[in-house]
Amino acid sequence: MNPVSDDTYATLLLCSDLALNTDGEVRAYTISQWSDLCERLTRSRLTPGALFDRDIKTKLDLTEEEALRIEKLMSRAGRFGVELSALNDTGIFTLTKSDARYPESLKKKLKRLAPPVLYYAGNLSLLSEKSVAIVGSRNIDESGLIFTEELAKRCAAERLNIVSGGARGADTVAENIANNSGGTTVIFVADSLEKKIRQRETREAILRRQSIILSSFRPDMPFRAYAAMERNKYIYALSDFAVVVSADYNKGGTWSGAAENLKHGWTPLFVRTAELPPGNAHLLKNTNAYPIEPDVLNSENTDIFGWFASQLKPSVDIIHEQISFFD
Fold first, then answer.
1. pTM for this one?
2. pLDDT digits (tens, 9 = 90+) for 150-175
3. 3-class SS at 198?
């Protein structure tokens, strides 16, 4: 295991559930709880590494209950180190908000909602490259399939990361196109990271430095619906632009993720207009969603990243004007 700073290790010990007993006696800090604790540290001009100090209870004026919780979580450092080292041996590593290489876009866009710990496998440098999220429902129609393939090919040709959640449907189609066309992918999974990197196509893309796979949950965790909902915001926050290929109306992860993004204004959202699925039509009723016609992808003279940028409204303030549609 590579050496880590006290700030990083304290964050891992308090926010990761690696090496935790299954009896539920003590739980890792949630995103919100960790944000609250960090605010208290900041007000006291301390960093997370200070939590190793035996006098931290007094310095932060902690309750007995919280001080005991911190002590229990920090006391598993030995077991945690062993599990983390084993994880590193499989090619899975960690990032915390204390690390310089943690994605700046997550911190900037999500602020308190940015996950304190990320697990990843693959090319970390991809996180600093231009990126386009391609999202869509699992049951993609024929026109949506063609649109996804064309958009993914354009992104690969222009060396733009394709960001997705690795789910069946538009996500997988776009990922496969990128892998087969020399493109790059940033995949944020909602279930087992360990399982994902055992897939042959994923392993090969990682070895070619074409991909990075991320998760905010322990790498062996099976699929959980709440994890998929949480994952959606990370897909948007990691992207410069996002494209909804196909969405159901008022249901499903694609709809809820797009609605949440429009409400918070994390990333400019484009919605496919051809043969409109019901969800797409309703998303376009929000004045902060941008239409994208399939013809845009057919012009080889069009710089697709530049085209996205050219469509944006001149003032970012407008992004918060009409959110009642999704409240």
1. 0.90
2. 999 999 999 999 999 988 889 999 99
3. coil
